[in-house]
Structures are given as C-alpha cells and as structure tokens.
Design brief:
The complex is a heterodimer of chains A (592) and B (88). Chain A is of the alpha/beta class and 592 residues long. Chain A has 23 helices and 16 strands. Chain A has 3 domains: 112 residues, Phosphohistidine domain (Glucose Oxidase, domain 1, 3-Layer(bba) Sandwich), CATH 3.50.30.10; 110 residues, Enzyme I, Chain A, domain 2, CATH 1.10.274.10; 296 residues, Phosphoenolpyruvate-binding domains (TIM Barrel, Alpha-Beta Barrel), CATH 3.20.20.60. Chain A is globular and about 90 Å long. The N terminus and C terminus of chain A are likely disordered.
Chain lengths: 592, 88
C-alpha cells in the first residue's frame, strides 16, 4: 500500500445504506489474500488427503448449520435460506466427488484441487452479463474460503474475531460476514462494492450498524489502523480527518445518538400539538424492508411508497406477482395504518433498461412518471393490478405522480377503473373503495387544484419537484443549485393555494419531500394547515418533538407572517428566530 | 443416448433456487444427464455446474441423457423447465 497521496480530510462518496455515524480505527478486511499452492502428494498419502478433505467439508457444514440456526432465530427464515444453497453446494458432485477423484487421480493436495474446481465455476458465473448471476459467485467464493480455512487449519479472519472497536473497510461483505457482526465491536462498515439492495446492506439496516457501500476504491485509500469517519446518513467516508473535522463529526454523532435514544421514548407518543391538534407523521420508503424502520421510528403510516426500485437494474419488467408480494408485505406490516403507494415514477433521472427508448434533451421535462404510464398502459396495468390485489390486505391508497392537468388524471383513473373491473370480474379480492390521489408537484397542477380536487380523494404535495419546476432550477446542477430554495415566497404561496383548494373540496392534503424533514419548516407547514407529513423515517422523531412543543395559534401566526416576507432569506431568518425561541437545540450548524 | 433442446422460460433464469430444483430432479434418475449452453457442458446433478451456466431467460439449453431411464429423465426436466419453476 505505497502510493498514498496526501489525503487530509479526503472525502469519498458512496451509497448510504444504514444510518448513523461511526468514528474509529479502520480495520481492513481483505478476502482474496488466500494463496493456494499446488503440491504433489505421495500415493500412500492419498487416503489421508481425502480424509482431511472430507473432515474439512464436514466441519464447514456444521459451521454453516449453526450460522443458519442463528440467522433464522435472529433475522428470520428468509435470510437463513441463503445458507441452504451453500450447504447444497458442499454435497455437490463437482465440489465434493470430483475433488476426491482428482486427489486420487492427479495426486495433488486437496486445497489446490478444490479451489481449482470452484474457480472454474466462479469464472463461468462471473462472466455472465447479469449482475444477478455475478452476485452468486460471491456466495461460492465465501463457501470456498470457509472450506479452505478448515483445510488449512487457519482460524477464520472474519469480523466475528475482531475484539477491539473498529470500522470495517472491505472490498465487499459476504452474507456470513455481515451476520457475524457484533454491534459492540463493529462501529460501522464501508465497502468498495455493493448497492442498496445487496444482502449486506439489508442486514446492516436491520442490525442498525452505520454503513456506506459502493465507495469504489476505499480499500486502496484507507490504511489499516488509521482513524476514519463513516457517515451512514450522508453516505460518505472521511479519511485522515483533521481535529476540526473530527470535532464536527463527534458533535454530529452525539446529536444522532441523542436523537436515537430519545427515539424510544418518543416513538409511542402521539404527534399532537400542545393544543391537541393530531398530526400524522408518515414515512417515505423505497424498499419493503424499510417498513420496520418506519415503525420503529414511530411512523403512523407510509406516506410515500416509491415503487421505482422494482424496475431498476434489470433488463425485464417486474411481473404482477412479484409486485403484489412486495406491496402486500408493506400493507400487512403497516395494518391498520395507511400506505400511500405511488405508481412508478420513471424517467427524469431513473430509467428502466426495458423502457429506455431514446435520449431526451430534457428528461425532467420529458417522458416521465404518469406520462410514461399513459404511453404504456399495458405496463401501467400490471402495476395497478398488483396494487389493487395488495389493497385487500391492508389500508392502501394510490397516488399518481406528475399530474399536470385534469385530462391525465381522468385517463389514469379510466385505466385504473378498467383494471378494477377486470379483477372484480375474475373474483379477485380488492379494496373496492381504495382512495385515489394525485401528487401536486407541477405548478400547473397547483393552478387547477380546484378541479383536480373534485375528482380525487386526497392530494400530496411533492416539494422537491414542485420547487424544481416552480423555480426552473435543476438542483443537481451545481451552477444553479443555490437557487433551489424551499422557502422561496413563490413556493410557499403555491403550497398555500393547494392547502386552500383541499379545504374547499374537503379533501386531505399531505406533504412529502425533504422540506418536511426540515425543522425550520415544521411550524410554518403546521401553520399553513397541513396535518399529514411524510418524510424519511429517521427524521420523524425530530419533527415529532417540534410538533409536540407548539400550539396551532402560534404556528398560524408564524405562517401568516412568513408568507408575507419578500425573500427566501428573510423567511428563513424569521423561521430560525421563531424555532430558536422554541428549541435552541434544533438549530445546528448545517441548517444555517 | 438421447437429447433435447429446451428454452429457459422463467424471468430470473437458472438462479440458485431453480438450479437446486433441476439438480434434485436430475438426481432422481440413474441416467447421466448433462446440460449444454453455448458449448459449455455441465453435469445436471451438480448445483455448481448448473449455476455455472448462468442461463438467463431465453437461453437455449441442450439436455443429453444417457442411461436406462434416459427418456423419463428428459421428460421430467422438460416439464420442470416448462413449469417456470413455479415462479410466476
């Protein structure tokens, strides 16, 4: 590891998969250092070599069975099944019988021949064009390593053996590694590879260990034993932090820990204002397994279930059954609380490989979300059927994204109606009165909100897109990102109009998007008349705390005043002052 | 020895679970059964072998069986592939 550049405060960006902040010494966990030498053996050693191999396999089986039991007990049968395939492989002709006959025929050492056999399989699988298959190669390698360790009598270098408190940095983590994590010793983990849906990521979330994956070359930049900072909230890894940065992160960490410990206390308390106005705090989710986190953070519903992930990173489309299972699992876990499911919002910056047609000059103004659905009703219908079937299992609502006018809403509802009729005719159970809503995220929808309101059961404002389309700012574009301002008076006026349209039509208006998780905005939004907020699960306790410390009278006065101010800067300064009076500790460095 | 070409019809292809089903089905017969995809030939009774094919949906697989129950073996595998491994 020679070629390290000066790397003071070097920040690597990855994908945040499990929240929390870890500060500690790096533990570099490499897997591929295992070298297997080819050795000749004498004819009279064959029998003992075969015996040694059989024992190693037997020992590995026992290990796997015990891990399987542990996983099944701690994490459920679903996760435990990963190990069934590994167990099956140990009985395999290719791995087992052929290694033994090779020992007898070729008179070479067991580890060499076994590894050779496995590598043939691994190489073939890794050559596949499909990530889905390639990932299985990691399972075979994991298994191979295990057997080799037993053959060579090496104590496993796995995280379970780590005694001091460290942040693990590894090219990738196998399912076994992740499972062996002990909360006490492992402060966090960072990997070069992996995505949000890898097994390791899912397990880290359920174990609540801060994790960042997809850091590309972290293992070649981090040195074993040096201090690193892992930010599982933002998805970054900081190498060689200076004292100032360390201090900043220690403060962030304290804040996060404080919140998470308050969480338990807050979870079961209602989100009521001081004068007993009940507010619904819902969670935004993307994956069914995030439902657990939503519940543990005190969400009283799923306010926005994004369904795009089902369509990404694959060349085909998800079938009705697959979607049904995903939606139903969320609906069932949330019973009796509501789940608002958004039909897929592809296009913009998320593309399905299947649907990708031609390159658009302005994808955010192009074939996106409901526009794509109306263009491909056959694909849209599959999702609607899956949602409707799942609606029989819980309290579901459907919401259409990117509606810009009443015609699109009518077309979407017509398609929904035909799917409903079809399912009813086939006797499939569905919720016949499933509420239907629209996302208000395009200024034109705000301006025609009165007519939209007459034909839907609810609205939900998507602030991220509403801001982007109102201010004509692409917030991903660094040149203009500064102009992206949730507190721009124009944005607030539009939001207010939507609330009023909802009140006139007597339909509920919810709000989702990052603005909801902004403590500064909470009092303002309450004052504007919102009683349903949806945000990422981790933000719920914080917002609940604020809600529980204001009364509506106060909030209305704040909103009334704020909306009359002329600039976003003035509005923010005013809100900061107001919330500062309520709760000085809500104002932290990054909100300024 | 007899042979037959079949197509992988389930969406996810021969991933771990279907591969395990193929192996256990093949294991019921005495015949030696091989699967060949694009020139790569593997033992149908080996999970690792079947997974090596990395056969996605639409792949053509040539099944060969050699042994007293070869005909039954090929038929059984054909039925299993056609069932799409009960995935959809």
């Amino acid at each position: 590891m020679g070629k390290k550049l000066t790397k003071k405060n070097l920040v690597l960006d990855g994908v945040a998969v499990s929240p929390g902040i870890a500060i500690g010494l790096a533990f570099l966990l490499h897997h591929d250092e295992l070298q297997v030498e080819e050795e000749e053996i004498l004819p009279d050693q064959v029998a003992s070599e075969v015996e040694k191999f059989k024992r190693a396999v037997q020992q590995t089986k026992e290990e796997l069975r015990s891990i399987r039991r542990r996983v099944s007990r701690d994490m459920g049968e679903e996760q435990a099944r990963i190990f069934d395939v590994q167990l099956l492989m140990l009985d395999d002709v290719m791995a087992f019988d052929e290694t033994i006959s090779a020992i007898q025929d070729r008179k070479r050492n067991a580890e060499f021949l076994f590894w050779e056999n496995l590598n043939t399989a691994i190489a073939a699988i890794e050559a596949s064009d499909h990530a889905f298959f390639r990932e299985r190669a990691a399972d075979i390698k994991d298994l191979g390593r295990r057997v080799l360790h037993n053959l060579l009598g090496i104590k496993h270098l796995t995280i379970s053996g780590i005694r001091s408190e460290v942040v693990v940095v590894s090219p990738d983590l196998s399912p076994t590694d992740t499972i062996m994590m002990h909360r006490k010793n492992i402060l966090g983990f960072a990997t070069d590879m992996g995505g949000r849906t890898s097994h390791a990521a899912i397990m880290a979330r359920s174990l609540e260990i801060p994790s960042v994956v997809g850091l590309r070359d972290a293992t070649s930049r981090v040195e074993h034993g040096e201090t690193i900072i892992l930010d599982g909230n933002k998805g970054t890894l900081v190498i060689a932090p200076d004292e100032k940065l360390l201090e900043h992160y220690r403060a962030e960490q304290r804040k996060y820990l404080q919140w998470s410990s308050d969480l338990a206390a807050l979870r079961d308390l209602p989100a009521h204002t001081l004068d007993h106005q009940a507010i619904q705090l819902h969670a935004n989710i993307e994956f069914p397994d995030e439902t657990d986190s939503a519940l543990s953070h005190g969400a009283t519903g799923i306010g926005l279930y994004r369904t795009e992930f089902l369509y990404l990173s694959r060349t085909d489309l998800p079938g009705e059954e697959e979607q049904f299972k995903a939606y139903k699992s969320v609906a069932e876990k949330m019973i009796p609380n509501p789940v608002t499911i958004r039909t897929f919002d592809l296009g913009g910056d998320k593309f399905s490989m299947y649907l990708k047609g031609y390159t658009e000059a302005n994808p955010f103004l192009g074939q996106r979300a409901i526009r794509l659905c109306l263009q491909h009703p056959d694909i849209f219908k599959v999702q609607l059927a899956a949602i409707l079937r799942a609606s029989a299992a819980g309290n579901m609502k459907i919401i259409f994204p990117m509606i810009s006018g009443i015609e699109q809403l009518r077309q979407a509802k017509e398609i929904l109606g035909s799917v409903q009729e079809d399912l009813r005719a086939r006797g499939v159970p569905i919720d016949p009165d499933i509420p239907v809503g629209v996302m208000i995220e395009i200024p034109s929808a705000v301006l025609v909100a009165d007519s939209l309101a007459r034909e839907v059961d609810f609205f939900s404002i998507g602030t991220n897109d509403l801001i982007q389309y109102t201010l004509a700012v692409d917030r991903g574009n660094e040149q203009v990102a500064e102009l992206f301002d949730a507190f721009h008076p124009a944005v607030l006026k539009l939001i207010k109009q939507v609330v009023e349209a909802g009140q006139r039509a007597q339909i509920p208006v919810a709000i989702c998007g990052e603005m909801c998780a902004e403590p500064m905005a909470t009092v303002l939004l309450l004052g504007l008349g919102f009683d349903e907020f949806s945000m990422s699960s981790v933000s719920i306790p914080q917002i609940k705390k604020i809600i529980r410390s204001v009364n509506m009278e106060e909030a209305r006065a704040v909103a009334l005043h704020a909306i009359e101010l002329e600039t976003g800067r003035q509005i923010k300064a005013y809100l900061k002052e107001q919330i500062g009076n309520l709760h000085p500790d809500f104002l932290t460095a990054d909100m300024t | 020895m007899i042979e037959k070409t079949i197509t992988v019809q389930n969406k996810l292809g021969l991933h771990a679970r279907p591969a395990a089903l193929v192996v256990s089905e093949a294991g019921r017969f005495y015949a030696e059964i091989n699967l060949n995809k694009d020139g790569l030939e593997v033992n149908a009774k080996s999970i690792m072998g079947v997974m090596m094919l990395a056969a996605e949906m639409g792949s053509q697989i040539l099944i060969t069986a050699d042994g007293q129950d070869e005909e039954m073996a090929i038929q059984a595998l054909e039925v299993l592939f056609a069932s799409k491994f009960d995935e959809e």
